[in-house]
Amino acid sequence: MIAGIASVREALQGIPGAETCLMRYEDGGAVQAFIIGDMTARVGASATVGDIRAAFLAEIAKNAGGGS
C-alpha cells in the first residue's frame, strides 16, 4: 500500500494539476483510481507511486494522441 496521497502528489510533480490529485477505491478495493482534473489513472491496490505516475503519463499520452 502507498504511503499516502501526499507521496503520490510528490511523485506526480510536473504533471499539471498534481497538487489536486484525489484517490478513491473501485471494484471493492481492488482498484485505486487517482483523479487529476478530467484524467483518471486506475491501478491495482498494491501499485507503487511509480506505477501511478506511469499510469498518468500513459493517460496523458493517450489523450495527446487522440486515443480513447
Task: Write up this protein.
It is a single chain. This protein is α+β, with helices and mostly antiparallel strands and 68 residues long. Strand 1 (22-26) and strand 2 form a beta hairpin. The protein has a three-stranded antiparallel sheet with strand order 1-2-3. The longest helix has 16 residues, at 49-64. The protein is globular, with a radius of gyration of 11 Å. The mean pLDDT is 89. It has helices spanning 5-11, 49-64; strands at 22-26, 31-36, 39-44. The termini are far apart. The chain has one domain (5-64). It contains two helices and three strands; from the N terminus they run H-E-E-E-H.
Keywords:
68 residues; alpha+beta; three-stranded antiparallel sheet; 2 helices; 34% helix
